[in-house]
Design brief:
This protein is α/β, with parallel strands linked by helices. α1 links the parallel β3 and β4.
């Protein structure tokens, strides 16, 4: 489905299930797409647990751009997309997820979107070789619980355990988390399972 936003159209690939227990909304990094192996691994776990999944190609990528542009515009478009999906799927727990730049978007918008939690894949803690340019505040200020899944060889850095509710560090993985995507799925599965079994307090007032 296409979703119109103030910053251009987005594309959403939907995996709908009967009576979903949660809605997982996934998105890509700056240069990639929604077919990234780690995203597909998380999608597979969500579907196995009875969740509906929406994979979002954001407006800047649909327009062929590699750079996402200003964070405020990216977040504004994201919240419009999520609002459309919430209307479609009703009042089920919303879990936001993305890899790299998409993980940043998921964290920055979690509270405003009314998310129950965030799965941040390959969160880019800082630009390679520039640890002083930290983005840790985006993790710490998400307003909901965040699971981070990073590789121990990620040149963008690895968040510390205190920076999120949980930080899973996968040995031998770099920023693409492509060495063993199944390990990404295994790391995420217990986190997603929480929303199949208990009521969730969302970030909405």
């Amino acid at each position: 489905m296409k979703v119109a936003t103030v910053h251009g159209p987005a594309e959403v690939l939907l995996d709908e299930v009967k009576d979903p227990v949660f809605l997982l909304v996934l998105t890509h990094g700056s240069n990639g797409g929604v077919e990234a192996p780690d995203l597909l691994a998380v999608r597979a776990e969500a579907l196995r647990l009875g969740g509906a999944v929406a994979r979002v190609t954001q407006p800047f990528r649909l327009a062929g751009r590699r750079a996402p542009g200003p964070a405020a515009k990216q977040d504004e478009a994201w919240l419009e997309i999520v609002a459309v999906l919430r209307k479609r799927f009703g009042d089920v727990p919303l879990v936001q997820s993305g890899r790299s730049n998409g993980a940043r978007v998921a964290c920055r918008t979690a509270a405003a979107a009314g998310a129950a939690g965030v799965v941040a894949l390959a969160f880019p803690l800082h630009p390679p070789g520039r640890p002083e340019k930290t983005r840790v505040d985006e993790l710490r200020s998400a307003g909901v619980e965040v699971l981070v899944v990073n590789g121990d060889r990620d040149p963008f850095g690895v968040p510390a355990p205190v920076d999120a509710a949980e930080v899973a560090v996968l040995p031998g993985e770099r920023h693409d988390l492509g060495k063993d995507p199944a390990a990404v799925g295994r790391a995420v599965e217990p986190w997603l399972r929480r929303w199949t079994a208990r009521p969730v307090r969302t970030g909405r007032n």
